[in-house]
Write a structure and sequence with these properties.
The complex is a heterodimer of chains A (660) and B (150).
Chain A (H helix, E strand, L loop, with lengths): L1 H28 L2 H30 L6 H6 L6 H6 L5 H20 L9 H23 L23 H29 L6 H31 L10 H26 L3 H24 L13 H22 L1 H6 L10 H33 L2 E4 L1 H21 L10 H25 L4 H32 L3 H11 L1 H25 L2 E7 L4 E4 L2 E13 L2 E12 L2 E6 L2 E4 L7 E3 L1 E4 L3 E10 L5 E9 L1 H19 L20
Antiparallel strand pairs in A: 2-11, 3-4, 4-5, 5-6, 5-7, 7-8, 9-10, 10-11
Helix pairs in contact in A: 1-2, 1-6, 2-5, 5-6, 5-7, 6-7, 7-8, 7-10, 8-9, 8-19, 9-10, 9-13, 10-11, 13-14, 14-16, 15-16, 16-17, 16-18, 18-19
Chain B lengths: L2 H27 E5 L1 H6 L9 E15 L4 E7 L5 E6 L12 E10 L2 E10 L18 H4 L7
Parallel strand pairs in B: 1-2, 4-6
Antiparallel strand pairs in B: 2-3, 2-5, 3-4, 5-6
The chains are: A alpha+beta (660), B alpha/beta (150).
Keywords (chain A): Cell inner membrane, Cell membrane, Cytochrome c-type biogenesis, Membrane, Transmembrane, Transmembrane helix
Protein name (chain A): Cytochrome c assembly protein
Organism (chain A): Neobacillus vireti LMG 21834
Chain lengths: 660, 150
């Protein structure tokens, strides 16, 4: 097994190098045979990665502790699902998973029906293969998944209990799928440039890939936040930690990319911008990995420090330099074929503003993340910027983005006249202002919250009008019932309405963020048995402190009866778990969730006489966040779904070559 | 003027606004990250700063007052220097000997650090190693960075 598993890695490396060379050779000598050989290599590569994955799964499932990786991350009493998902608990396994996805995507693209006979294929394969060579090299020489220990231990160290949570099963997988997914549009863009194609074929061909990668990236961030909320016991979901920023930055630039490509498709503009954006997004996925794995920044996430990060930095630098070189050498061609803006106030310019804001937001995150490094290099002291910095900077940027999002659907392409603006915006604007006045009257007086919710009201109204007008126009012609009309309207224009659903999801998330950031309450109190804690309209009666045993873990828990406005809500048990095979205990919080707010109870400490210290928080509108996330998924899936309509395969009109 | 130029100009204004926002927000919400040695040597200068500092926890020194919700403990660095810490909040989950604590707050009194937040970092939180095996020497370089040129 040892030989076999390692063979998959090293043979994989050999195949990857071979395929890369043979395809490059095939391109330069225009020999289809070489290219075909390289394509065969892609399949072999995928088989290698798949077998390596299977081997590691097998070793983990059967608890073969003589393997370092199995020993470090699992123990024999672990449920089988966590034994298997321990595959992505450490560096080597995560990278193996990444490699596997990469090879999977490669095979899917190179052998897809749509790409048959397309001269871009060899170039795309070569670019992706360069990535594969890098990953197999890392797996073969830096982070080896199949290392044997000198002795055979009887028991493993177990999986960090914090990682034993459903959120952690999915979170890394989705993030990696997102990261890998961004390599695809990058490879297409580069291939198009190398072939001197300046049309938008690469954008149309990768539209689905980009949306799917974006969806996974969003999911990765959301699951991460959700995991932090239920598992870490500090009552928050986002802390602007370097590791979180690392995955948020590519999300921002990928979002910008998704929007600006629409301008290129429609108006033939922003070509250089789009290519730069995809290069940046791709580079940021590698940069994020560098940040996370190298330990250059103080972060509580603290993955083991290794020189792994350095390899990623070098690889990223090489990739970016090559990409920029290609871009520069084609700069004039792109410039010559670009379209022009017609008007100040138009959909195009609003997309541009949205792009600038998104990229600006990404830059601000980047700035804050690397600021300690920069200041240390320049001035000798590590100046840190924390939560307040990010909140101060990101809140206005993202709020203005919401505003652009609210007005954009109502703007016309090309140019919007004053009359048109008046007609479209009078009612929504009045309603939004009325809503804001109403909020102030009702006692919501924090400026940020009022402005934020005002903008969201505007957004909801404009989006509602979009749906309403579409349905009305359709019914005029077809006389369908409203629901049928709505349904048919939406499936005939999936991308547009899917996008609107995502917008609404973002609006819900924003409402949740504004609510939970501005109106959260926290209290910390030590109480005797039988005493109670009061917060807002809740009363928490501390009834009992006890201990129980579950498997090899000892659990200390408190019984708390919760009353709201005198009405009993039930009994809840915040716990502290002491693990049989893990040094540090962890808090299991009790969360009482409703549409309006979450009551979040943490058992922090207790004394011998039964007194216990609780941290109790009220986090408003948390469920809105999760609901919005759900809508994002629905919207994105709706947009990429293979429907009956508007599903034309983009036609390749670029340069022809002898080989494909 | 061409429309493209106008739009570009608008773009620059937005970019400028974002840069301005960055500049404006940086000084107010930033702090300094110091090593314990630096902090103890230059304590007076940093009285009003928001300081991030790392130290190794001394378990015997932990005093927890549940009624006032006040946690007192000492941290040390590898050169044996000791600093007292006061924190108004409960103990983090893995508060045991030799764990690296990341403290954020300000040094109000002589040799005493008032921490607004106390986070612990298991040297290898996600890397499946035992804390028992943790050798303080491993992170010596992290805790003892020599002061860079002034």
């Amino acid at each position: 097994m040892f030989l076999f598993a390692n063979a998959t890695i090293y043979i994989g490396l050999a195949i990857a190098i071979y395929s890369l060379l043979i395809i490059t050779l095939g391109i330069s000598t225009k020999n289809q045979k070489f290219i075909n050989s390289g394509k065969g290599g892609l399949i072999a590569l995928f088989v290698c990665a798949a077998l390596a994955m299977l081997s590691l799964f097998y070793l983990l499932a059967t608890s073969q502790f003589q393997y370092e990786y199995v020993h470090d991350y699992t123990s024999s009493e672990l449920p089988i699902i966590y034994k298997l998902t321990a595959l992505w608990a450490g560096n080597a396994g995560s990278l193996l998973l990444w490699t596997f996805f990469l090879t999977l995507y490669m095979v899917m693209i190179v052998f897809s029906r749509k790409m048959k006979g397309n001269p871009m294929v060899p170039y795309i394969s070569a670019i992706l293969l360069a990535n594969a060579v890098f990953f197999f090299f890392i797996l073969g020489f830096v982070a080896k998944p199949f290392l044997l220990l000198d002795t055979v231990p009887i028991e493993g160290k177990g999986l960090n209990p914090m990682l034993q949570n459903p959120g952690m099963i999915i979170h890394p997988v989705t993030l990696y799928l997102g990261y890998v997914g961004l390599a695809i549009p990058f490879a297409f863009a580069m291939a198009a440039l190398i072939l001197k194609n300046v049309d938008d074929f690469w954008i149309k061909a990768t539209r689905r890939w980009t949306i799917i990668a974006w969806l996974f990236l969003s999911l990765g961030n959301i699951f991460g936040g959700q995991w932090a909320y239920v598992e870490l016991g500090w009552g928050g979901y986002w802390a602007w930690d370097p590791v979180e920023n690392a995955s948020f930055m590519p999300w921002l630039t990928a979002t910008a990319f998704l929007h600006s490509v629409m301008i290129q498709e429609r108006k033939n503009m922003l070509k250089i911008w789009n290519i730069s954006l995809i290069i940046v997004s791709y580079a940021l996925t590698l940069f994020g990995t560098f940040l996370v794995r190298s330990g250059v920044l103080t972060s509580v996430h603290a993955f083991a420090n290794s020189n792994l990060g350095l390899y990623f930095l070098i690889f990223m630098a090489v990739a970016v330099i090559l990409a920029l070189y290609v871009l520069m050498s084609r700069y004039n061609m792109l410039k010559r074929s670009a379209g022009e803006f017609q008007s100040f106030v138009s959909k195009e310019s609003s997309f541009l503003v949205n792009n600038l804001l998104l990229v600006g937001a990404a830059f601000a995150v980047f700035w804050g993340t690397i600021f300690p490094l920069v200041s240390e290099a320049v001035r000798g002291t590590k100046v840190t910027v924390g939560l307040p910095f990010f909140n101060k900077v990101e809140a206005p940027i993202l709020l203005s983005m919401m505003f652009v999002m609210a007005v954009c659907p109502m703007l016309a392409w090309q140019r919007s006249t004053v009359k048109n603006l008046k007609k479209n915006f009078t009612i929504p604007a009045i309603l939004a202002v009325l809503g804001m006045i109403l909020m102030v009257k009702l006692g919501i007086q924090k400026a940020w919250a009022v402005i934020g919710y005002g903008v969201i009201i505007l957004l909801l109204i404009t989006h509602y009008l979009e749906f309403y007008r579409g349905v009305k126009a359709r019914r005029k012609m077809t006389k369908e019932t409203p629901f049928v009309a709505l349904y048919r309207l939406m499936i005939r224009n999936r991308r547009r309405y899917g996008g609107y659903i995502v917008h609404l999801g973002i609006a819900f998330i924003t409402m949740g963020i504004i609510g939970s950031q501005n109106y959260d309450l926290e209290t910390m109190k030590t109480v005797d048995l039988g005493q109670s804690i009061e917060i807002k309209d809740y009363r928490l009666n501390y009834e009992r402190l006890d201990q129980k045993r579950e498997g090899i873990n000892d659990i200390v828990y408190a019984d708390i009866t919760v009353f709201k406005n005198g009405k009993k809500l039930g009994s809840f048990q915040p716990e502290k778990v002491f693990y049989g095979n893990w040094e540090q205990p962890s808090s299991e919080v009790a969360i009482i969730s409703s549409l309006k707010e979450d009551l979040y109870i943490v058992l922090s400490a207790w004394e011998d006489d039964g007194r216990a210290t609780f941290v109790v928080k009220v986090n408003p509108m948390m469920n809105w966040l999760w609901f919005g996330s759900f809508m994002i998924v629905i919207g994105a899936l709706f947009a990429v779904w293979n429907g009956k309509y508007g599903n034309v395969t983009p036609r390749y009109t670029g340069v022809r070559r002898e080989v494909s | 003027m061409k429309k493209n130029t106008i739009v570009m100009l608008g773009g620059f204004i937005i970019a400028g606004a974002i840069v301005f926002l960055l500049m404006a927000a940086t000084p107010g919400s930033s702090g300094v990250e110091l090593t314990m040695k630096e902090l103890l040597a230059t304590q007076d200068q940093h009285k009003d700063d928001f300081v991030t500092v790392e130290g190794l926890l001394i378990e015997d020194s932990i005093k927890w007052n549940p009624d006032k919700i006040e946690l007192k403990f000492d941290v040390k660095n590898n050169e044996g220097q000791i600093m007292h810490v006061i924190h108004n909040g409960p103990k983090p989950d893995n508060f045991s000997e030799g764990v690296i604590t990341i403290l954020q707050g300000s040094p109000t009194k002589k040799d005493t650090f008032e921490a607004e937040s106390v986070k612990t970092r298991c040297p290898s939180k996600y890397e499946g190693k035992d804390i028992k095996d943790y050798d303080p020497e491993t992170h010596k370089d992290k805790l003892n960075q020599p002061p860079k040129e002034k």
